[in-house]
Write a structure and sequence with these properties.
The structure is a homodimer. Chain A is α/β, with parallel strands linked by helices. Chain A has one domain (about 5-275): Aldolase class I (TIM Barrel), CATH 3.20.20. The first copy, chain A, has eleven helices and ten strands. An eight-stranded parallel β-barrel of chain A has the order 1-2-3-4-5-8-9-10, surrounded by six helices. In chain A, strands 6-7 form a two-stranded antiparallel sheet. In chain A, helix 8 links the parallel strand 8 (about 190-195) and strand 9. Chains A and B meet through helix 3, helix 4, helix 5, helix 6 and helix 7 of A and helix 3, helix 4, helix 5, helix 6 and helix 7 of B.
Chain lengths: ~280, ~280
Amino acid sequence: MTKAQLIQNIKTKKTMLCVGLDVDMDKIPQHLLQTEDPIFEFNKAIIDATHPYCVAYKPNTAFYECYGSKGFASLEKTVNYIKTTYPNQFVIIDAKRGDIGNTATMYAKAYLQNMPGDAITVAPYMGEDSVKPFMQLPNKWAVVLGLTSNTGAQDFQKLPLPKFNAQGKIEVELLCEVLMRKVATWGTTENTMFVVGATQGVLIKAIRQTIPNHFLLIPGVGAQGGNLQEVIQNGSIPNEYGLLINSSRSIIYASNGADYAQAAGIEAQKLQQEMSVYI
Amino acid sequence: MTKAQLIQNIKTKKTMLCVGLDVDMDKIPQHLLQTEDPIFEFNKAIIDATHPYCVAYKPNTAFYECYGSKGFASLEKTVNYIKTTYPNQFVIIDAKRGDIGNTATMYAKAYLQNMPGDAITVAPYMGEDSVKPFMQLPNKWAVVLGLTSNTGAQDFQKLPLPKFNAQGKIEVELLCEVLMRKVATWGTTENTMFVVGATQGVLIKAIRQTIPNHFLLIPGVGAQGGNLQEVIQNGSIPNEYGLLINSSRSIIYASNGADYAQAAGIEAQKLQQEMSVYI
């Protein structure tokens, strides 16, 4: 999907919502366990109920791989279902992959070609040759980890690095800012996004100054405690919006009864209505 | 597997060799393509031919995921085959995973429980809660990226960070060293290893001073150009060896004729003989 199409979808549907499909068999309604593919059945119903209120879906691969090759097949079916039934939805495979060049190319093939994802999340620690292969397929995106929503973001992402300012004096800059500025030079705003956690509050504003024109994928609204209004005010781009705001657990586990899909639709609609004020 | 068992295996077999199972269908002997599971058939023959000369195997998940759920099943079969047939082999799932705490726990379950890997490679950028779940299962290991073998290692892993020395003066230290020292405090030498590329030459010596007691997984010998003697002299630990040295392509693609397994065995034996001098 192109950036222009994504922006148009946000504008038309008045939502920046991305629904995270992190399916845990222990948390889904128990009557689904009798079906042949409980994970896919669950996802299909959630997708059918939430699609009017979101522009993107984000399945996290961990939740599929932990059920082995059968779980991997559920992931394939889910991604294929979304892109076949609702082709305007932007699908982010949340895989956080990163490996040396020839191996990264295999991952790009796996998730952006064989599986028809629009984007994949990428771990940047291994540098340029590990990230670029995800930026080289037409209308496909690398969503690179910048500043994440978890407590561990403190450990390395916020390490201070020395930097000379315009007056020749030493200032400090966070590793995540240095990293995002560098990664931004490897691609364009048409094939690169960054993950920035909703829980990072005012830092989102600083990051928006560092990378003014890139879309940000923002997890951490909802269960993890990030504030929607603050995120939009600090992170959006005039006219282009520039944000995909993810919510997983608070939508997909809104109910674990027979009404789970309906309840997910209601939660997604609530978030859509909150977001529509800004669009 | 415990550290004592691993050291004993190195001592008994006089080898630190880890064989990387990075199977590309375009590179395997074409007669295997008629079998039901070419990847598994290839791996099985390679494993049967090389097991006397190595103490570890390392399948890289990218090469399986790019064949979808069928490829994922080949990975499961391969890992099960090794641990059932040659239980003394240490199996490292080269997955380079890293995600927030509850998601990392799912990955640990996928690769160290459901799949009987001894170890998984872990990307550390997301910090403590993303790494620790891989250190918490008995006799299982997190193999954390330190300084990798690829050209992109230059981009972030070698960023200089300021540090006060014992005399109160500012010195610089590389990000990868700061990172490895911190990660080392989250686990023990019984559940944590680090990836350090063979191509990093003299830096391996500096890293051995930073983390004197941890096993290192060393990729990059062979096709990538790292020097075996230099690696062992700079990186080994007295009496404990402390190294697993990986070679993939130069062993598994030693021939692409009907003699591919035999040729792989010969290559592995050559490396074992070179290593035996130091054990």
